[in-house]
Specification:
The longest helix has 18 residues, at 232-249. The chain is of the alpha/beta class. The radius of gyration is 22 Å and the shape is globular. It folds into 2 domains: 9-89 and 230-429, Zn peptidases (Aminopeptidase), CATH 3.40.630.10; 91-213, Roll (Aminopeptidase i, Domain 2). A hairpin with a 5-residue loop joins strand 11 (218-220) and strand 12. The chain contains 10 helices and 20 strands.
């Protein structure tokens, strides 16, 4: 190994299993909830009255999940320590009328979700996942994890200038996957999906379906010091935050209430009832305060002492495009999580937040790095500024440095998931 810290192979192996089992936000939520249940957390419904008892609880809504652990002795004004992340990733999503095709090919009509790197979905074996909604309002998860779809690239013989002029893709015409031969039949896809889910097709009233690469995550490199896989932006952070919450819940004494908040729809702006700009997090935190007998004054005191680490992937320096990065800030894999800074508040980090993050890394014995964008390049953003502005909560933007962000298959250091989880655990434990 070339890194100073040998990665925890067990943690990284578990991340790989989590990625493979979570092809959609709905699967990520279901898998997170299952692990919480196994650790003694219990689900609470938003429509029920909540009690103020100690222990682990969680709420799910669509592709979002919020979990928290109330330690013995917590008061109504006890502050929270929050790890924020998101469950969604850029991909291709099935349209309301999905059955299409031309010239003897059967295809599936898709929309482009988030800032997708289109070329990474070409010539790749694709499965189908998501959920269907039945007439009684219940949901069924769908996970067709075998080669079913493909978006074929035009052969070089029919596009002689592609290597000189660059690949040009029309989002409407060139990104529709094919899945067979024959005449287009209305309802064909949903009949297939219903059969896969074990329900009658006439019971399906709605669907939220998407495609995913069926290639599993894998270690990469001579020394297996890298990890290649799908949806690391941002299931890597969801998985690390979950591990940290479960570890913190086992601590003997906690000065804070540790929270994991994993939202949907970050990749398209967070404006939904399950996104970070929606009311879900605020409602959960406030109801937790009030369930413990708190008042609005207690709520204000708790929020004033609360800190959120918004954990999302960031950019490792690309060896072939180093000029696109800030010359003084070159995050590298396997050197620990990154602290993300942008003075125009595309990231929410300030000097006080830096101190909180640095202290957590020091307690965990974890190295860390800085990330800032090249001044000539636009800077992305996260749920961090949204969380800070919506709830008045001190927020710090962090993450793991990766390559190929928003590709169908991304790349990170194999040490870094464990190092992130260790830092998040130290943060939640206070």
């Amino acid at each position: 190994m070339s890194s100073a810290h040998r990665f925890d192979r067990g943690h990284t192996d578990d991340l790989m299993s989590f990625l493979a089992a979570s092809p959609s936000p709905y699967h990520a939520v279901a898998n997170t909830a299952e692990r919480l249940e196994s650790a003694g957390f219990r689900a609470v419904a938003e429509t029920d009255a909540w009690d103020g008892s100690a222990g682990g609880k969680y709420v799910t809504r669509g592709g979002a999940i919020i979990a928290w652990y109330v330690p013995e002795g917590a008061t109504a004004a006890t502050p929270f320590r929050i790890v924020g992340a998101h469950t969604d990733s850029p991909n291709l999503r099935v349209k309301p009328l999905p059955d299409t095709g031309a010239h003897g090919w059967r295809q599936i009509a898709v929309e482009l979700y988030g800032g997708t790197l289109l070329n990474t979905w070409l010539d790749r074996d694709l499965g189908l996942s998501g959920r269907i909604t039945l007439r009684d309002g219940s949901h069924r998860l769908v996970h067709v994890d075998r080669p079913l779809l493909r978006v074929p690239q035009l052969a070089i013989h029919l596009d002689r200038g592609v290597n000189q002029d660059g690949l040009k893709l029309d989002k409407q015409r060139h990104m529709q996957p094919l899945w067979g031969l024959g005449d287009v039949a209305e309802g064909d896809l949903i009949h297939f999906v219903a059969e896969e889910a074990g329900v009658a097709a006439d019971e399906v009233a709605g669907w939220d379906l998407m495609v995913h690469s069926v290639e599993p995550p894998a270690y990469l490199g001579r020394d297996e010091e890298l990890l290649a896989g799908p949806r690391m932006d941002n299931l890597l952070s969801v998985h690390a935050g979950l591990a940290a919450l479960l570890a913190a819940a086992g601590s003997a004494s906690l000065p804070y209430i540790p929270v994991l908040a994993a939202f949907d729809h970050e990749e398209n702006g967070s404006q939904s009832d399950t996104g970070a700009e929606g009311p879900l997090l605020g409602n959960v935190l406030e109801r937790s305060v009030f369930a413990r007998g708190g008042t609005f004054e207690d709520r204000a005191r708790a929020f004033a002492g609360t800190v959120c680490l918004s954990s999302d992937t960031g950019h490792a320096v690309h060896p072939n495009y180093a000029e696109r990065h800030d010359p003084g800030h070159h995050p590298m894999p396997n050197r620990g999580p990154i602290l993300k800074v942008n003075v125009n508040q595309r990231y929410a980090t300030d000097g006080s937040g830096r101190a909180v993050f640095a202290a957590a890394c020091e307690r965990a014995g974890v190295p860390w790095q800085h990330f800032v964008s090249n001044n000539s390049m636009p800077c992305g953003t996260t749920i961090g500024p949204i969380t800070a502005a919506r709830h008045g909560i001190a927020t710090v933007d962090i993450g793991v440095a990766i390559l190929s962000m928003h590709s169908a298959r991304e790349l990170c250091g194999a040490d870094d998931p464990y190092l992130l989880a260790a830092a998040l655990t130290a943060f939640l434990e206070g």
